[in-house]
# Entry
Amino acid sequence: MYISPEEIVETLTMITQQNLDVRTVTLGLSLSGCTHPDVEVMAQRVYERVTSAAEHLVPIAKQIEREYGLPIVNQRIAVTPIAQLAAATDAEDLTPLAVALDRAALEVGVDFLGGFSALVQKGTGDGDRRLIASIPAALAATERVCASVNVASTRTGINMDAVLQMAAVIQDTAQATADRDSLGCAKLVVFANMVEDNPFMAGAVHGSGEPDAVINVGISGPGVVRAVVSSLPADADLTSVAEAIKATAFKITRIGELVARETAHRLGVARGIVDLSLAPTPAEGDSVAEIIEAMGVGRCGGPGTTAALALLNDAVKKGGAMGTSSTGGLSGAFIPVSEDTGMIRAVESGALSLEKLEALTSVCSVGLDMIAIPGDTATETIAGIIADECAIGVINAKTTAVRLIPAAGKRVGDRVHFGGLLGEAPVMAVNDWAGTVFARRGGRFPAPLGSLRN
Amino acid sequence: MHTPAVVSVLGEDRVGIVAAVATALAEAQANIEDIRQTIIGGIFSMTMLVTVSEDAVPFDELQRRLARTAEDLGVQITLQREDVFRYMHRI
# Structure
């Protein structure tokens, strides 16, 4: 079998001109053997577990990157939700565990480590309570650690007490990192239907149904899809557009499949999933919004955007599902505002509002993501936004999430700057008609009829 | 260990490109299985299917040698394991 020069040139063009890369190779690690009643001893065990298990992760990923001539942008680690370890200790402040994870991430050379997390969709245990209370201080004291809390699921409904609590935690985290444009909130995700094998930050955790160590890979490639869609004639019908996206998604996914196989084999750990998500970056052209615009919508956010995104998301899954039998994670197009220059442009031109973004989350992955809002937004308003997003996830049996940054001291029109992959974002207007009663009713939003599947 | 790989060369046409690349490969005991070469609008384009003998010269060392060759010739040369293309373009 010979590979034709055209095929070789196509691959090289995707890599060199269209930002084709593997977005992340994420090592999932169980920390269940690290528990100890003394939180400092537990922190030391966690540090040793992560540094020994992940010692070769970055060198191996770099070696694969060189041999295949294929950028692997990030190497990351996801660990057992720390609230599960917290049950073993009675320490109120769990920041020492976050600090140990941060040191371990630095030692092995990864930029983010996820799992300072709790799952409270049906109720909040004592370990969960202490973890959630520790989040603002933990995110202020660390650089690489990411936190996430699952407050809802289709099987259980929405824990509305946890929703309100997380709204306050988001505000406290914004204040605790006010000197860095409230950066802590960029590392904090509130989920409905959290998945246990997501390789992407900030919401990655290593779930309880996973093996001790596993490699999960997140693909990328908005730039490649945009280039393919742009090359179609303006009168190409949407079936042809979907077909072109599907064929491209297949190729992108095969790259992820290859890297997942090689990394897991060389590290000697289980091969997990390939996450078929189109993840944008602040690099020019590497934008999901620009794919929507290449499909013909005047500006992302305009009428037609939800339909275009739904078609894109579906075509990526169809092509991707042919490319790997190990689909998993979030697997959908991401629409983080700060990390996508096309989204930022759409917001600044008035085409894209928070409400339209909410509508988009019903047809793609994953939720209201990396959106800066005014620092003085009320707790009840943030809780209402989280509840709305959870309702979309719970009723439609999909993952949804909220990663809002109520930027301390900032107003609509100001900007926050995080740098690197987290990018920058304009502060967006928020509908302030939430009232003060709904979010404070608390209790459990019952599981929907759709949860009765058996 | 014998590793199938693809060498791709792209750049302004000049005398001696094929010779220089082939010499670098021969010195590394890398066997050329197939060559396709063309000139499009004055741009030299060549793809080679090769087998790298990693026991003689490791993959990354051959990459470094080819990078030096590329610098001498003023062209772009990449050496990649062949599976990346097979995975992407073949079911």
